[in-house]
Amino acid sequence: MPEHNRMILVDSHAHLDLLKEPLAALQRARDAGVAQIVTIGIDLASSQKAAQFAADNEDIFFTVGLHPHDAAQADEAMWQAMARLAGQGAVAWGECGLDFYRDRSPRPAQREVFARQIELALRLQLPLVIHDREAHEETLAMLTEQDAGQVGGVVHCFSGDLNLAKRFLDLGFAIGIDGPITYPKNHTLWEVARGVPLNSIMLETDCPFLAPQARRGKPNEPAYLAYTCQGLAEILGLSPAQVAAATTANSRRVFGLPAGA
Fold this sequence. Notes:
This protein has helices spanning about 20-30, 45-55, 75-85, 105-125, 135-145, 160-170, 185-195, 225-235, 240-255, and strands spanning about 10-15, 35-40, 60-65, 90-100, 130-135, 155, 175, 200-205. By secondary structure, it is α/β, with parallel strands linked by helices. It has a single domain, classed as Metal-dependent hydrolases (TIM Barrel, Alpha-Beta Barrel), CATH 3.20.20.140. Strands 1-2-3-4-5-6-7-8 form an eight-stranded parallel beta sheet. Strand 5, helix 5 (about 135-145) and strand 6 form a beta-alpha-beta unit. The chain is globular and about 45 Å long. It starts with 8 loop residues before the first strand and ends in a 6-residue tail after the last helix.
């Protein structure tokens, strides 16, 4: 584990409900300098679990959302329940968006559900956590058409090129950087990292997925954010402490988190 030297990190995208031993993972995260974690809702049940994690831990915050994989399950009762839950302290709406790689829900359903979630985020004045996989142009178009820049947010686990990143920045969205920044020969993502202002980058684990290279093949967890921070620092020619300070400030600004430790 990289030496964090009292760095303060924020894991801006975790799925704590999917970890086998979340309480143990939380303690390891705190020991590694992760001061705050945003745990993400991907359907009603996971959003409820995320809210409970936040209720039980002052350093955990939650979001409410429906992942595009599950778009076909949406109904009005679910939307009403999610909106009520979001009103109980959610820091963002999402993970929501479009996934044309796996297409686990029909694309028309994905579009309809994404549009509804942008509408809810605007109504509740919550930033958006965007999932965009092989749907770059349509994701950007829908956000633009609905004026989602009013609330902004983050494009989670960014997978496009630098030109696309700049277009999302122009719309008011930050760029989420995860473990793949540490993978060998990930030149497109390295170019994105170098070309995007540091004040527009948020660090994420997406745990238990996308473990950094040093832990690749194992379940990811928030403590491993230190590896991602170190990897990004090496690419940018900065110290890990500089990257930690900037990305922590960004996550707190976008999600309205308290200053904390």
